[in-house]
Amino acid sequence: MNSELIKSLLHLDTTLYSIIQTYHDWTHALLFLIVFCETGLVFTPFLPGDSLLFVAGSFAAKGLLNHWLLYVLLLIASITGNMINYTIGRQFSSYAAKTGKIPFVKKEYIERTQHYYEKHGFLTLILTRFIPILRTMAPFLAGVSKMSRPHFFFYTVSGAFLWISIFYWGGYLFGNIPIVKDHFNWVVIGIVLVSFLPPIHLYIRSKRK
Q: How many domains does the chain have?
């Protein structure tokens, strides 16, 4: 099962093409759901993000998907997913403050998170849009730190616009160039690897310090 999942993720072009052939217009709803879950639920960070947007954009350019409808749906999914994740984080923090019990988390970690988001909230929420796993965790932690809701919403909309636009329109404009099309699986692997470079770099720097 795991090997099949990995194969599907590495060959997103063939996987998404099969889905389009099977579900037709319902594919738009499925892509909405994937992006919503990947950004909105802390236990689904394994879902494809950057590479999925790129592949979806390339199929939209072929006319297999409604490109403007899909673009708007992906933006909405990304924004609402973040807002749900943020709300869950706030509820978690409120429960912890009320009961004095924080399952699996030390209270000092919550305090550190609050301090960090007060100083670096904007930059964190923008940059983590482009980093798998952290993209899922950042809005939850923003909720835990009780960042101002209007500020979080502004950062979320800004980050969603940049993230969706760069990868979706990147796929739309360049995904069907012959050299890209003929090596699509390597392009997907490349996108995934590049996405993980920032957290690896930060980890190495923290170890040196």
A: 1
